[in-house]
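Exercise 7b. Backbone tokens:
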């Protein structure tokens, strides 16, 4: 049975105490901070019989406060990008904060990743303790309409880390939540030799500011073809020759699933031959953003240097900029009516490949 241990992690620059909650699942465990809802570590059994922390991150609150990259944090109100920060609802345009190449990214100036969330340890009905985090984003925060109540529940049972999202607003608004976890199944070095499979027939090309405008491209015959297992580095070698890769300096793209896919099957599988750790990913969202850590350049846990492509992200979400592109909204609109419930789940299942 999963049990949760609570302890003090540190203090913010404003003097607020940050708590760490460790979800113990047998030998495996995961630690979540109430600051940003950050996954501070996920430690799992490897093929050598030891334990590997498969997340990049920091040992102190200051590490998360002072460095960019949204490492392992909950993202909101809107994960990914909105073109020129323009959000139009029922004829009224809301100008959102521009924090990435003239566009709005990951909730703006102060997103959910910088908030201290209210926490509660709850039971899943099977005797396992889960961590519930909640927050109220008030009407007008970052210029979004509506008082938005958000709850995110973390559970870690039988090697499966589940993140269940729920939100509701009292005004029509835009909602697109995710977690920005950075995975390296070896615990360090590079993910370019990790094997990745993504069950997505399409990816979404962007302009030079990483904004998509309505196009879908088939992955077949491109560096974006992960429909069969392939090492991440194979496609990354094309980043100077493929226009879509060049814009992001490597993989920073949304992959779109088939509308009729079987959601009980993993949308992605990540594997490291070195550690033997395999991660299967599940979601009921229509898309995932693959970010291969192209901008990593900082010092992380235990003084480890985090360099380019040291870790990758698989951010489940609606297609970016869908609030301005009807063709993307057809795959799942991020516009929610007042009182309409936003809900989805992302699961990361860890094991050793036999």
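Sequence design result:
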């Amino acid at each position: 049975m999963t049990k949760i241990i609570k302890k003090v992690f540190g203090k913010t620059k404003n003097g607020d105490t940050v708590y760490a909650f460790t979800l113990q699942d047998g030998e495996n465990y995961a630690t979540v901070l109430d600051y940003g809802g950050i996954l501070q570590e996920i430690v799992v059994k490897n093929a050598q019989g030891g334990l590997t922390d498969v997340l990049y991150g920091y040992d102190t609150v200051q590490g998360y406060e002072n460095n960019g990259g949204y490492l392992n944090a909950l993202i909101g109100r809107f994960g990914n990008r909105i073109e020129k920060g323009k959000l139009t609802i029922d004829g009224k345009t809301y100008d959102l904060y521009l924090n990435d190449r003239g566009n709005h990214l990951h909730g703006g100036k102060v997103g959910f990743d910088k908030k201290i969330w209210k926490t509660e340890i709850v039971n899943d009905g099977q005797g396992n303790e889960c961590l519930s985090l909640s927050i109220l984003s008030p009407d007008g925060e970052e210029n979004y309409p509506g008082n938005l109540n958000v709850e995110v529940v973390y559970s870690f049972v039988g090697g499966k880390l589940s993140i269940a999202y729920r939100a509701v607003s009292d005004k029509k608004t835009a909602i697109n939540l995710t977690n920005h976890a950075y995975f390296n199944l070896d615990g360090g070095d590079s993910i370019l030799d990790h094997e990745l499979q993504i069950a997505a027939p399409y990816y979404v090309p962007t302009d030079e500011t990483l904004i998509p405008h309505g196009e879908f491209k088939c992955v077949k015959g491109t560096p974006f073809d992960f429909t069969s297992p392939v090492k991440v580095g194979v496609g990354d070698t094309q980043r100077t020759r493929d226009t879509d890769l060049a814009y992001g300096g490597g993989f920073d793209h949304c992959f779109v699933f088939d509308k009729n896919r079987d959601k009980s099957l993993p949308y992605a599988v990540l594997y490291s031959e070195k550690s033997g750790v395999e991660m299967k990913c599940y979601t009921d969202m229509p898309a995932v953003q693959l970010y291969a850590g192209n901008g990593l350049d900082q010092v992380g846990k235990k003084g480890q240097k985090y360099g380019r492509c040291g870790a990758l992200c698989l951010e489940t979400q609606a297609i970016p900029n869908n609030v301005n592109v009807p063709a993307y909204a057809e795959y799942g609109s991020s516009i929610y009516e007042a009182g309409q419930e936003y809900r989805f789940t992302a699961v990361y299942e860890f094991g050793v490949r036999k």
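Instructor comment: The mean pLDDT is 97. The first strand starts at residue 3 and ends at 11.
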